Amino acid sequence: MAITSIHSIRTTLNKSIQYIIDRNKTRNGELVISSGCSVDARTATEQFTKIKACGSGRSTILAQHIIQSFAPDEVTPEQAQRIGMELCQKLFGNDYQYILATHIDHDHIHNHIIVNNTNMFTKKTFETEFNQGKKFERVWAKIRNISDEICEKYGLYVIKNPQVSKGKNHYEWEQNQKNNSWKSKLKLAIDEVVKIAVDFDDFLIKCQQHGIDIEYNPNHRIDLKFRLNGQERFTRSRTLGWYYETSQIKRRIENYKKFMNYKLDYSIIRTDTEQMQFSSGLQRWADLQNMKNASKIINMLTKYSVQDNVDLEDKCLSGMAVRGALVGKLEPLQKEISLLKKKKQAVVKLLKHKPVIDEMKTLSGRKKSKFEKEHQVEIFAHNQALKQLQEYFPDNHFPNVPTLDKQISEKTAEFDNLNKQYNEVVARNKELEYCRQQLDEYLRQERSQIQQKKKNTQLE
Question: Up-side HSE of residue 365: CA atoms within 13 Å toward CB?
Fold first, then answer.
């Protein structure tokens, strides 16, 4: 998922370019490219200025600054740069001078694009060519739409209709944490059906059989809705989270099928073949290998207190349910940790630039105007951090860094503990599934031998 924004640069173009090409943020300058200009800040500023001097408009804007941010661990620096290059090519072609810098100094990789406000060939301004017409045709919408198209092409998650997205109120969040909300109950019911469905069509049928009303129309943008018996309204799959969207449910069903059909390299050796019947040496070897394998299976069954074949099947299914439940806890916890880190970064940035803001408040008149021009980058960074924190904390009570560090540490410890449980469950499930596969093979061979004996008896 990529978030985009754009703002105009009216002063200190040199400093803005210098900021985005910072070698400490761009892997010693490896992640900086340009079109129609130099990657050196001073030279690029001069080249931008020459083109602007030939411009047909009276705009005081020197350049536009576009930011394209990706979610943590979503892309590599090279992928981010490639996506940024495609965005520039689709937006500007070869008509505008621009510098693209990919920053890797935060946990979320992001692109900075500074583009000259004047077209090199038509000499028209950026606003004239891009920022006219209806609201949805404005440049910010074009950038977002093109960015989303490219992200979808690279398989990245894209928020559909972000303008209508809604948040979760505090009561619903609190109930969800206690696993009491109707959403939690609905998600749990869907999870149970996913485990027993053969394919997506079977999933649709089994939902009805297990008390879940379902509406599915692949031709609609909102293609899948659920409702527990007793609920008034249907709930869109997207409202429950990406884990419950059509594509993800199909993927989960396939994963369960693959797991249930998991085959290991070694198995019970067949002794009813013609080759085995005419070789006593091979038979002894096969019997010895089968005894070793049987001993391994018995030890595993004893380890997990398996009583019989039915109990084994139940334990395999319950193991998968536990794994699914742990995944359901790990994913939101990982997002929560990521959000806490973003909050911390915003607080750190706010504190870093606070002295500049404090000094600016002591000034007035020309001194203040001059100071603002000289420190435009720092002021912008401070305001961006402040805006971000106000979105996180509408009451304007921002936590301090030690508090956030403590929360991150606690959540990380919780995640590590759950992840350890997850790895243990996966290992346990593999061993139980191995036993199930081997017992199925053994019973199949037994049936085959019995049928062969009956056939031989009939022939005699």
Answer: 1
